[in-house]
Amino acid sequence: MNFLGISDFGLFCAAVLLLNATPGPDTAYIVGRSIAQGRAAGIMSALGISVGCCVHALASALGLSAILAASSAAFLVIKLAGGAYLIYLGIRMLMVKPAADTGADGASAAALRDNRAPATIFWQAMITNVLNPKVILFFLAFIPQFVQGDSSQKTIAFLVLGLAFAAISMCWNSGTALLAGTLARRAGRSPHVRLWLERGVGAAFVALGAKLMLTKN
What pTM was estimated for this model as a whole? Predict the structure, then answer.
C-alpha cells in the first residue's frame, strides 16, 4: 500500500477491528434494529452505516470534513440535526401500535411496514451515521495517521482507507446483527413481546439522540 501513500495498512485493519469491537452509537443502533425488527433489518442498518462511513471518507478526502469541523455553527447544526433525527426515529418506534389496535384503514400497520422496509432502514441508518459529528471528528483524527505526509496521492489514500474501514465495519456489524437478531427471535416469538422490544429500542434511540444533542464535544 506504500505506492498509494498508505503506511501500516495491517495495523490500520487491526485498529479498525478493535474499534468496531468497542460498543458505540453505531453498534447500539444496529443491535437495536436487530432486536426490534429482526436480522434482515440489522444487516440493512449495518450496510447503511458502512455507506455512511464511505460518505465521511469522501468528505475527508475532499477536505469538506475539515471545513465543517472548523465552523462551530455548522458543526452545531449537524449535531442537532443528527440528535433530532435519532429522536424522531425513536418516537416513531414508541408510537407503534399492536396489530389489534390498528384502525380499519390499516394506517398503523402501513406505517410499521414502511418503517421496516429494507430501503427505509438502509437510508435511516446512513443518515444517522452521516449526521453524527463524532464520526466526522473520528475520520479527521484517525485516518490521517495512516497516510504518508509526503504522499502525492493523499486523496486516493483517504478513499482507500475509508473503503477498507467501511468493509471491515460491514463484516463485523453484520455478524453483530445476525447474533442480536437470532437471540431476539428466540426470546421474543410473541407479537406482544416484540412490540415492547421495539418500544424499548425506540426509547433507547430517543436517549441516544438527546445525548448527542447535549454533548458539548
Answer: 0.71
